[in-house]
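User: Quick sanity check before I run a bigger batch. Here is a single chain. Can you write out its predicted 3D structure?
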Amino acid sequence: SVDCSFSRGVCDWKQDADDDFDWNPADRERGDGYYMAVPAFVGHKKDMGRLKLLLTDLKPKSSYCLIFSYRLAGEKVGKLRVFLANKKTAPVWEENKGKDERWRTGKIEIFQGAETTNSVTFESERGKGKTGEIGVDNVILTSGLCPED
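Assistant: Done. Predicted structure follows.
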């Protein structure tokens, strides 16, 4: 299992240079480190911010599970999508509203065929809202299939 969280993770995170805004660190409520967030008021409606996790050592023909915490807080805050590098066209995961402001857990299975996935992109799309934020935290990559809830 590889800890890719932002405060102490060992993974390589990059801001996309071709998007509309950056993700920024935000302090956790408990004060132990930070998470990455996009405040609702950044940019214009439909603007995108992408944060890319570079994966270097995934073995071909094996499966992995990417587990992460996320939060969509605020009215019409926008969308959070996750893309895998080898499937650029459609997101493998998408969420567009939070039932409340609580953190939830997302899971994505990454199957390595002959072509290996070399990055995962978290994309935030700005909504109509002016308050709240989209946040991502505690990103962990484990080998094998994702555990059932």
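The first strand starts at residue 2 and ends at 3.

User: Great, the batch can go ahead then.
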